[in-house]
Fold SDR family NAD(P)-dependent oxidoreductase.
Amino acid sequence: MIILGSNSEISQAFVEKALEAHEKYSTIYLFTSNKETTEKFAKHIDVKFLQQTEVIELDLRKEIDYTKFDHINSDLLFCATGYLGEGTEESLYDQKNTELIIDINYAKLVPVLNFFASKMERQRAGTMIVLSSVAGERGRQSNFIYGSAKAGLTAYLSGLRNYLFEKKVHVLTVKPGFMDTKMTEGLPLNPKLTATPKEAAEGIYKAYKSGKNVAYVLPVWSVIMLIIRNIPEFIFKKLKL
């Protein structure tokens, strides 16, 4: 199994969920921009599950040497890479903040996903599980730069799923709503609309095993986003969402 964004609480919860379900992996490849933190998780699953891992540095803010990944083959990829960025009005026009949001959520991530998608295509087997966001369904004033990057990622995954279907590779797009993670720490989230990493992992694993194409972590978000998508633009532009 390949994990992109292995310091994400959702990634780690998914790994544990899969191992608790007695899934078998020769190696779990943990891609991370922080090897020291990831190695602690690697040791944890080695002790708890006797699972072999390999921690691999991948920083989407830097140039990537893909030859270092040539030896890696897997029929399951899980990606929870993401960066919310600074959410203040002052940071809206900050160029560095904008570039990081777009690069980490889309521009630098897509080539990495393509690299592993091509490997799965050649072996004619595999599943790619990628977390996008409900924020990508309609641009809102509170997070439209992040949302636009996630919208691009969602469109990419839809096209990739279409392209890989005949190649026997499946793509699952996951759209979390509010998540109780380090990335959202301090935000005023409605607890009824917020999932824990463990709840998310269980829902994603179920969607993966049932072969879903698109999954919301909490079903209520499908209703919420249906409403938001269908608000007329002349009304929507006046709302503070």
